[in-house]
Amino acid sequence: MTAARNPAGWVAVLTGAAGAIGAEIAVALDAAGARLALVDLNREALEKVQDRLSRPAQLIVADLTRPEDIQRIRAEVIGHYGACHLLINNAGVVMVEAFERSTPETIETELRVNLLAPALLSREFFPWLCLGFQSGRHTERGQIVNIVSMASIVPIAESAVYTASKFGLRGLMLALYQRFGRQGVHVSSILPGAVDTGMLRHEATHGGSALNFLSEPQTARQIAQAVMKTIARPRVERYVPMSDGVSGLLVMLFPGLLSRLTPLMSVLGERGRQRYLRKRGLVAVTPRDTTEPATRL
């Protein structure tokens, strides 16, 4: 068995760093000794994450829907650290809306944040990830870790564009896993089920899919732990929890049966949603299929 990779001293770029999952990943990387470049739209929220860290991080306020901001992220990180060893594409956005009520703007936002931004960031940082660097006794090359979603395996009718973006992201990273691996760059994806974040609470109360609640939602810290495991021992995909990934893959062996299975899955998921709402003292505030603004991870 090969030795576990240790990110101490690595330069790690993390998008969506001010969200619940991003903050836990930042704390875990900081504890492991990584040097951080934290990217988010919200400067104040980034500063709150900084308060939890043991050393100063580079804070970059950027809009991932803007290609020029993505180029600026790369320029600022390389200008500040002179290197990038780890790129974590964590930022995500979902619109709680029926597809037929969506607008060109909301469709474009989801696709840009969830799919196009990771593609562009991976392209921008790839030359730096290819450079060999010393990590302990070993010469390593860099790694891309993506927070994808179980929606990249099983489609969610209530979040059609989000599903499309995550299907696309998973496919892109599987392709880059094959291509970048030739240069020794690891490409890994974390596929969580539902995660107990502000985004999930918004979906729970504003008509999001009941399929999110088929199993107990994971915590943001559990996703961060999965990221750290994947850095230590890279693999192409990691399902959190594993049972959701296995069941999702089995269901999609016969996608034509999905319409028959969905009603039963929705009933079970709705029971899980009600348990979730009661446990957290939440109340559904709008009818199903009502368009709501984007919520970020």
Summary of the model, kept short:
The chain is built from nine helices and eleven strands. The chain has helices spanning 20-31, 43-50, 67-81, 104-129, 160-180, 198-205, 220-232, 242-251, 258-280, and strands at residues 11-15, 35-40, 58-61, 86-89, 93-94, 133-135, 138-140, 143-147, 186-192, 237-240, 295-296.
Can you describe this structure?
It is a single chain. The protein is α/β, with parallel strands linked by helices and 297 residues long. It has nine helices and eleven strands. The strands form three sheets. It has a seven-stranded parallel sheet with strand order 3-2-1-4-8-9-10, with helices on both faces. Helix 2 (43-50) links the parallel strand 2 (35-40) and strand 3.
Task: Please name the defining characteristics of this protein.
alpha/beta; globular; 46% helix; two-stranded antiparallel ribbon; 9 helices; 15% strand; 297 residues
Topology of this structure?
Layout: E1 11-15, H1 20-31, E2 35-40, H2 43-50, E3 58-61, H3 67-81, E4 86-89, E5 93-94, H4 104-129, E6 133-135, E7 138-140, E8 143-147, H5 160-180, E9 186-192, H6 198-205, H7 220-232, E10 237-240, H8 242-251, H9 258-280, E11 295-296
Parallel strand pairs: 1-2, 1-4, 2-3, 4-8, 8-9, 9-10
Antiparallel strand pairs: 5-11, 6-7
Helix pairs in contact: 1-7, 3-4, 4-5
